[in-house]
């Protein structure tokens, strides 16, 4: 069993980005500036967005965090987005999801200037991604491709089973891995809540991407020997023995599945840190595009 170490790999990527930032500085060019908008007080969302801001500091990016109250109206949020869209100093920005229920997420994502959409969530960028045209690939799928590449995990001709059809992970991951690209050329099966005979399908998988949000869903009896497993799930389960009161659990029953795996990502320390590194990468690309 080989651990796909997202913590170490993301640290390597951040170091590479930091070097590029130093080059930009030395040349007297503008350095990257990422902004993030967060609405409301959800604890997990605040943790993630703070991690993004901290990562910016670490690589020498400017960052701006805009915190808006839970009661923020859709109109107020659209106004904030309009300001960031025209702010010459901001290279890219994200609107942290999920948003409060009274705000139409699709409307918000469509208001972001596609050239500043470093999350890659705008329909224009999703369309470009689907056509394999240069664009911002959203950070989680991008991070998974990068992790597979850096560990030389072969995907060409392999049967990949993606569990989950979300717009942010399952759907783009299925599209990307089936494309003609360095990490790609796979035969992809996408499974979801209506899939019948799921276990029959996962037992045929060379690579499984678990992105359904059900803690420890994928068990050892659902995978074949020497499988590669990418665990995108990240659920906070109450755990009184932990000082923060919870532990993080992925979509994979890690110990039992790891025993049968060739490669596997842990939670925490797998896909999560890669997501942050690739958001930085997209922001660097957004800045370099203008230089
Ligand atoms: N517009 C938008 N873009 C996102 O990219 C986005 C989002 N909204 N909403 C929420 C999800 C989730 N997400 C994570 C980022 C980092 C970790 C991460 O660093 N996880 C650490 C542990 C962090 C912890 O202690 O909770 C790990 O897995 O090792 C996890 C999850 C980005 N998301």
Tell me the name of the CATH class of the largest domain.
Alpha Beta
Structural class, from helix and strand content? Answer: alpha/beta
Helix content: 40-55%
The CATH topology of the largest domain is given as: Rossmann fold
Cofactors and ligands present?
A: 5,10-Methenyltetrahydrofolate
Radius of gyration: 19 Å
- Give the tally of β-strands: 11
Terminal Cα span: 43 Å
Integer count of domains: 2
Overall, the morphology is globular
EC number: 1.5.1.5, 3.5.4.9
Organism: Polaribacter aquimarinus
InterPro entries: Aminoacid_DH-like_N_sf, NAD(P)-bd_dom_sf, THF_DH/CycHdrlase, THF_DH/CycHdrlase_cat_dom, THF_DH/CycHdrlase_CS, THF_DH/CycHdrlase_NAD-bd_dom
Protein name: Bifunctional protein FolD
What's the arrangement of secondary structure elements?
Layout lengths: L1 E2 L2 H21 L6 E7 L3 H17 L2 E7 L5 H13 L5 E4 L9 H7 L11 H8 L8 H12 L8 E5 L6 H9 L8 E5 L6 H5 L4 E4 L16 E5 L3 E4 L7 E4 L4 H5 L2 E4 L6 H20 L1
Helix pairs in contact: 1-10, 2-10, 6-7, 6-10
This protein binds 5,10-Methenyltetrahydrofolate.
5,10-Methenyltetrahydrofolate binds next to helix 2, strand 4 and helix 10.
